[in-house]
Design goal:
single chain; about 140 residues; mainly beta; globular
Length: about 140
């Protein structure tokens, strides 16, 4: 099977020297989220970003329109079977990640995913903080671009 080259977000710095991510189009991230002082329990969610760099911005607050929650009591197992999640907009995103994908290097190709509109290439992510949702701090486990 042909594996596309991974595409990590390109980084620049702003005038204060802080990293700035460049836009690379739309993306979907499979995220595990830790509780904060204002939330209870761990959760996992599929998060769509029209500008994929928003899914890599630690201060970005995701809205319920772009989040499909997989689990509200524990971390979801993303690997090992064909899975899907339907957003409140009615759009369904589906993927199939091999059981051993977490043992692969970061940014390794893990397979494709698709929604009602197109196919995405999927990669293992580096578990960076990718924003907040409902008081949880979410880390990107896999991303599709």
């Amino acid at each position: 099977m042909f594996a596309p080259t991974p595409v990590p977000a390109a980084k620049l710095t702003d005038r204060d020297g802080a990293p700035v991510l460049l836009k690379r189009g739309e993306g979907i991230h499979l995220m595990n989220c830790d509780p904060s002082a204002t939330s209870i329990g761990y959760m996992s969610a599929v998060i769509y970003c029209a500008n994929d760099s928003d899914c890599s911005n630690p201060s970005y607050g995701h809205s319920s329109n772009n989040v499909c929650v997989m689990s509200t009591s524990n971390f979801h197992t993303w690997e090992g079977s064909t899975q899907s999640c339907t957003f409140s907009t009615g759009v369904t995103f589906s993927w199939n990640i091999g059981r051993q994908a977490q043992s692969s290097p970061d940014y390794s190709y893990v397979g494709s995913g698709a929604n009602n509109y197109r196919t995405f290439a999927g990669y293992k992510d580096d578990k960076h903080l990718g924003g907040t949702y409902n008081g949880h701090y979410c880390r990107s486990i896999y991303y599709y671009i």
